[in-house]
Design goal:
Elements lengths: L1 H6 L9 H11 L4 E6 L5 E6 H17 L7 E5 L4 H12 L3 E4 L7 H11 L3 E4 L24 E7 L7 E6 H14 L7 E3 L7 H13 L2 E4 L8 H7 L4 E4 L1 H7 L3 H7 L7 E4 L6 H11 L3 E7 L4 E5 L6 H9 L5 E2 L4 E5 L12 E6 L6 E2 L6 E2 L2 E13 L2 E9 L4 E3 L2 E3 L1 H11 L3 E11 L3 E10 L5 H14 L12 E4 L15 H7 L6 E2 L2 E4 L3 E5 L7 H11 L7 H10 L1 E7 L4 E10 L2 E9 L16 H9 L4 H8 L3 E10 L7 E7 L14 H16 L2 E6 L4 H7 L5
Parallel strand pairs: 1-9, 3-4, 3-5, 8-9, 8-10, 10-11, 11-12, 24-25, 31-34
Antiparallel strand pairs: 1-2, 6-7, 7-17, 12-13, 13-14, 15-16, 16-19, 18-19, 19-20, 21-22, 23-24, 25-26, 27-28, 28-29, 29-30, 30-31, 32-33, 33-34
Helix pairs in contact: 2-3, 3-4, 6-7, 8-10
């Protein structure tokens, strides 16, 4: 077939994936093939090519033993790990089609949809991995010859509410991997570090390119912002593939780079899969002296279609970076620029990029049209210029409204559908991609509330719903920015259809409200704390300051933040004046901690005898405790005294009190009250919007001091 023949033009002739692995096992048996490491780069396990060959055979026998045959489809619900690659390569080698699931971002609903759409016969999870090496040593493996068979189904967001399943053959993958190997001059001396999810087409194809080159693949559990350079240095990685968000992150990790600079072997980085900010790329290369080579492609093309060549002059390279060129065509790719009628355009004429070649998918599940005259229609708008005898391509925008955030395609229609699903206040919703220096693009939503709905209350209600999380959408896809508009302000066609492109051009970023901004007074802004917030460190310090000796390290504090919603009060000097954390379940908000920057820790006297529950209850109700008094002034009632086994909390002697606040409606924050009270007010307003009750879990503030003064209890 045409695709099989295409690979024979490459220096590495591949006619069977299993034969390629077997050959590498024979030629370089002890060479590391798959290297698993932790976030810091310490090696956890190392699989040689000889072991890889054996493990692929074990995995193939396992897949056959559970009833899978050539043409069957199997869903893989696995995190980044060597087993995901081993299972994938084993499946493709026997003709079984893999359907990777996103264990981090797929909701249960979306995961089920992918399984049903792909007609997956079964799902393999982490708990199934150990079964691959158990028994079946004598079972005959029915290897699949050739490359033309279907190998992979990847779901990509499009113009519909649900993602489309792109069907890729093994030839599609091998051809594209061969092109990447050729483009980046990959050899068996290379160590490729996986920094993106293995279920993504980027890592899938780059790992295959490394396999074709006979190099080594380094697999960390995930991308680590703080340990990126350290990990690359410790694992002796020579190349990697990243997205705009990682480039942005690392510009704030210059000290981390300096510490390991002399040990780094990294000599080239590929960047793509998301809109790239040229200025950020330039700053990165100036700071770290590592060349970045931009590439362009889609899931439907098995990854890279173009790339900035490594052999261009320094002057031309800098020019291409400055102009944000996506490079020239890969050796396999035939790229044209066409107008809406399919006419091929000339140099400097803007039109749609259309692509033909052996790496282009065979189609979508369901048969949705994606081709015209044999060309795949990318829906990306661009042009080309001939420079030094080569066509170099430049992206100018997109026909379809896909939002690409950090390399992940997000369907605006899917997000809009969820917004209407979680909020009965919304009449219309439209999602747009807005520029973001970290991710390239962020999700912004324009909503029109139903007639008679109070706008600010509805907006706060929507914010709270999205922040606390919904099973219908991942946090990654959740809009970061919101804007409420009257329906009359929407730009529409003569037939009444909203013009999304005009809407995007009409609205400026500063018009949007942050999802995480809840309230504003004349002295404070009340924001919900996120992992990306610049206030994370200050929040951690404040928490430990107020809760001595119950201090948490940075890792434990991030876990704490993931379990609760934390609202921070930021003053006019951009400093945290206070913060409150709460959970939301069983239709009630429960405050678990409150901190104020004005709090001053006091010494705690030693107590030899801890009082019983009744003593503590009487002590609290008698007005002896400052923390209890604080809550009582705001209307809270004591529900229960709980001995919670925390004797290290020496001031409270291991006791916790559960309090309930009244359900009377609070609509405003009183800026003249202490910040701790304002935070309670903020939570009660949120509770009113959610129609929930408010509880507080707190600890007595002076129990130890009182007991120490009470002679009968010494």
């Amino acid at each position: 077939m045409e695709q099989d023949k295409a690979m024979k033009s490459s220096k590495t002739v591949v006619t069977s994936l299993h034969e390629r692995v077997s050959l590498l096992a024979k030629d370089q048996p002890t060479k590391p093939a798959l290297i698993a490491c932790d976030e810091r780069g310490d090696i956890v396990s190392c699989i040689s090519y000889q072991e890889l060959n054996r493990k692929i055979e074990e995995a193939a026998r396992y897949l056959q033993s559970v009833g899978l045959v050539s043409g069957d489809r199997v869903a893989l619900s696995l995190p980044n790990c060597a087993e995901l690659l081993i299972l994938s390569w084993a499946a493709w080698s026997i003709g079984v089609v893999t359907v990777p699931l996103d264990v981090k971002r797929d909701t249960d609903e979306l995961s089920t949809y992918k399984q049903k759409q792909s007609n997956a016969k079964m799902v393999i999870t982490e708990k199934d991995i150990h079964s691959m090496s158990v028994g079946r040593t004598s079972q005959t493996i029915e290897w699949k010859n050739g490359l033309s068979h279907e190998a992979l189904i990847l779901f990509t967001s499009g113009t519909t509410a649900y993602p489309k399943g792109a069907m890729l053959t093994l030839a599609n993958l091998v051809v594209n991997a061969g092109g990447i190997k050729e483009w980046l001059h990959m050899t068996n001396e290379d160590r490729f570090s996986v920094q993106l999810p293995l279920h993504h087409i980027n890592s899938t194809t780059f790992c295959l390119a490394t396999l074709l080159a006979g190099g080594s693949i380094v697999i960390p559990p995930r991308y680590s912002n703080s340990h990126f350079f350290e990990q690359l240095a410790r694992t002796e990685a020579t190349c990697t593939s990243i997205v705009q968000s990682i480039v942005f992150d690392q510009l704030h990790q210059k000290d981390a780079y300096t510490r390991v600079q002399k040990n780094l072997k990294l000599n080239r980085i590929q960047i793509g899969s998301a809109p790239v900010v040229a200025q950020t790329v330039q700053e990165f290369m100036k700071e770290f002296h590592i060349p970045l080579y931009q590439g362009y492609g889609q899931t439907e093309t098995a990854l890279r279609v173009t790339g900035v060549p490594m052999d261009v002059s320094k002057v031309l390279y800098e020019e291409l970076i400055q102009e944000n060129s996506i490079g020239s065509a890969m050796s396999w790719a035939q790229i044209e620029i066409a107008d809406d009628k399919g006419n091929i355009l000339g140099e400097q004429e803007e039109g749609e990029l259309i692509i033909k070649g052996p790496a282009v998918m065979k189609g979508y599940i369901g048969g949705e049209s994606a081709f015209r005259d044999g060309y795949f229609l990318t829906s990306d708008i661009g042009l080309f210029r001939t420079i030094q005898g080569r066509r170099f391509f430049f992206l100018k925008g997109r026909k379809k409204e896909i939002i690409i955030k950090g390399g992940i395609n997000i369907s605006p229609i899917a997000v809009e559908s969820v917004l209407k699903r979680v909020s009965s206040d919304i009449d219309q919703a439209y999602c747009l991609g807005v520029a973001d220096e970290r991710y390239g693009e962020e999700v912004a939503a324009v909503v029109c509330f139903k007639e008679g709905i109070e706008e600010q209350s509805a907006l706060r209600r929507l914010k709270f719903t999205l922040v606390r999380g919904t099973p219908f959408i991942s946090a990654y896809e959740t809009p970061k920015y919101l804007l409420s508009l009257p329906a009359s302000d929407l730009p529409v066609t003569s037939t009444g259809k909203v013009q999304r492109t005009v809407l995007k051009e009409k609205i400026k970023l500063e018009q949007f409200e942050s999802l995480y901004e809840l309230f504003k007074t004349n002295s404070h802004t009340f924001d919900i704390l996120t992992p990306q917030s610049p206030f994370i460190q200050a929040s951690h310090v404040l928490y430990n300051h107020c809760w001595q000796p119950l201090t948490l390290d940075a890792a434990a504090y991030k876990k704490y933040l993931s379990e609760y919603v934390t609202v921070v009060a930021i003053d006019n000097q951009r400093k945290i004046a206070g913060q409150i954390s709460f959970s939301y379940e069983d239709n009630r908000l429960t405050c678990v901690s409150i901190c104020s920057a004005t709090f001053k820790p006091r010494s705690v006297p030693e107590v030899r005898i801890v009082p019983d529950v009744e003593f503590v209850r009487e002590y609290l109700l008698a007005g002896n405790d400052p923390v209890m008094n604080f809550h009582q002034k705001l209307g809270a009632k004591l529900v229960e005294v709980i001995p919670n086994g925390r004797p290290d909390d020496t001031s409270a002697l291991g006791y916790t009190m559960l309090l309930r606040y009244p359900k009377n409606v609070i609509t405003d924050i009183d800026p003249h009250t202490p910040i701790s009270q304002q935070l309670i007010q903020a939570v009660r307003i949120l509770a009113n919007l959610a129609g929930s009750e408010v509880y507080a879990v707190s600890r007595p503030g002076a129990l130890a001091a009182y007991v120490a003064r009470s002679t009968p209890h010494h």
